[in-house]
Design goal:
Oligomer: single chain
Number of helices: 2
Order of helices and strands: HEEEEEHE
Structural class: alpha/beta
Number of strands: 6
Radius of gyration: 19 Å
Length: 140
Amino acid sequence: MNNSLWVCLFLITILIGSCKGNRDQYIWKSLKVNVFAYNSHISQTDSLPNLAAWGDTLRPGMKCIAVSQDLLALGLGHNTVIKIQGLNGIYLVKDKMHPSKRNSIDIYMGNDIKAARAWGRQRLTIEYQVKKDSLMNYSK
């Protein structure tokens, strides 16, 4: 084999190893929560309905959620990876709910108010990733 092929194989091996290493830093936790839906509409948020709590701009089609603020202490912070029972794909935490909400998430449904109303309120299990080294900071 020539040198450039060896270098490519070496770099691929390092890349695969570093990806696996990052994956090993996390565990999945599960939690049963109230699940609602929300839209980018002034009546449901504020005067900047596409601007999320951490400064992200929400766009229809994004798979993201808002979390009740009590869930932040459990590790559900900005960009936490979430799986929602019965739904396909991965969602990211991009927004926070009003402080009065507890043990809840809101699924972002863009501008489709009809779909959000049809969703209603459901009680589902979510799974979320938490860094292993941060587990001592979370009560659950």
